[in-house]
Amino acid sequence: MTAVHSLGKEEKLRILADDSRYDLACACGSRDGEDHRRRGADGLWLYPTSVPRGGKAVLLKTLLTNACRGDCRYCPLRRDRDVRRCALSPDEVAAAFLGYHRRGDVFGLFLSSGIIRDPDHTMERLVATGRILRRRYGYRGYLHLKVIPGASDAAVEAALAVASAVSVNVEAPTRSSFAALSREKDYDRDIVRTVRLIHRLTAPGTRYSRVRQSTQFVVGASHETDAELVTAASRLYRRWKLSRVYFSAYQRGLGDPGLPGERHPRGPPEDLLTREHRLYQADWLLRKYGFSASEIPFEADGHLSLLADPKETWARRHPEFFPVNVNEARRRDLLRVPGLGPVAVRRILAARKEGRLRTLDGVVRARALAVKAHSFIRFS
Ligand code: SF4
Known about the structure:
By secondary structure, the protein is α/β, with parallel strands linked by helices. It has 2 domains: 2-250, Alpha-Beta Barrel (TIM Barrel), CATH 3.20.20.70; 318-378. Helices cover 37% and strands 13% of the residues. It has 13 helices and 12 strands. Strands 2-3-4-6-7-8-9-10 form an 8-stranded mixed beta sheet. Strands 1-5 form a two-stranded parallel ribbon. Strands 11-12 form a two-stranded parallel sheet. Helix 2 crosses helix 3, helix 3 (119-136) packs parallel to helix 4 (153-162) and helix 4 (153-162) crosses helix 6. The N and C termini lie far apart (69 Å). Bound molecules: iron/sulfur cluster (SF4). Iron/sulfur cluster binds at residues 68, 70, 72, 75, 77-78, 114-115.
């Protein structure tokens, strides 16, 4: 591990913000919409996110330190890697963020950290940054804090007291795939217990019910299948009420050479990015289109097809469901039509109140989507 002490604050912030890009578990950085990160004028990555009042804004995302005693085998910052290490104090991060925020450059802060000493010590520094922002500067905006696996109940609760959102990265969908990623972290003790604890502490009617919980899976580092990932995501939404599950394609060559994803890669790196994209499409089917995990169409090997959108694959496998009558079908049936999304279906339902529809013109704005839908609908 190479420690660097002589860097200025700005240079350290640039390094730490850059290294935070491996973590997507916030309302940013996904590939399922137009939420693509971009560099700000000073070179820092800025992450678009949806804001509660509607529209988009950007988050500043950074680590407190990229020094870490963790052994996560997919992570380029794990302890045995020779990378430039540095740290910012909670005061420095709070002041730097407020500078951007006051200029109107960013809407909120996503703060994570490598593990320094132990999980609770790291959590103390993350929470200290939040307290400085909330108490000293009166900041009332968006603050996402990463919860370090293995943190105590008290440390998690302290994070909930200052954060708008928190996340502990589940990383893998099963105990066995998780065990391939880290020899030190324990799936039940460090991950599942923490997700449950946050769920309990943020349940409706509790003191921290305003705090949202999200998480991230690494895709392709272990031997997990898409079916396992989608089933786990569905469980996290239904049972533990997570607001979002993110998928991050494993970056080959940055992890431990002995990792399953390095030894048995499923296709070239582009395939992992396509796989990540298909998982986000399946995630949309769960969250927005009323599909259950058991309805998502997997191939015989337990993966989603890389070649087709899972909604279209489902439609092709269920010819008995089509054509759907646009003038009479229920909302949930219209949502199964390839090419029709929640906005188009809302427009169709509104237009039906005015009279019978004979065309999708005016309700489906994108021509390609209207053409796609036409093979699956009828008007009478
Ligand atoms: S805890 Fe694991 S994932 Fe996080 S910085 Fe350390 S090695 Fe990387």
